[in-house]
Write a structure and sequence with these properties.
179 residues, single chain, Beta Polymerase, domain 2, alpha+beta, 4 strands, 9 helices
Amino acid sequence: MNEAQSLQQAIDEPVRLAEYDPAWPARFDAERSRLLERFSAELIEVQHIGSTAIPGMPAKPIIDVMAGVASMAMADALFEPILDHGYVTSREFNAVLTDRRWFMRHANGHRTHHLHVVVHDGELWRQRLVFRDALRADPAQAERYALLKAELAARHPDDREAYTQAKADFITWVLAGPS
């Protein structure tokens, strides 16, 4: 499979959940180190987010990396250098994003990493960490999320956007905290 075929297969990859893999944190650490080695002056902090960051959580086997920068202007300035560092993205998709820039790494037709470049300590930065930490701290809540994800993956196997959007109410509920 050539690079173009691998990329197209990764783009079209169905929503498939895998059982938690204890190697995911090490894969994050390796990518974090790789990013900080290249962008040490630009990246304020790099965090592991998403379901692969929650021990025991089934997840799409894609490491979600959140990189904090000083401003969206910095995120935009990093756009081409990140592409030169092994990531790909859709310029059209990023053009509609106001609070982040999104990139993907892939290998052998599978997504391996998603990189979310956001304003450090901004609203999106805080929300993603609060959500991750809430699920890490509450196994019952994490189990509810795991069941929802399984249901949604079965319902939207070929529509990543629909799968992601269908999780929004649960995420909003968790972010609202105890009532």
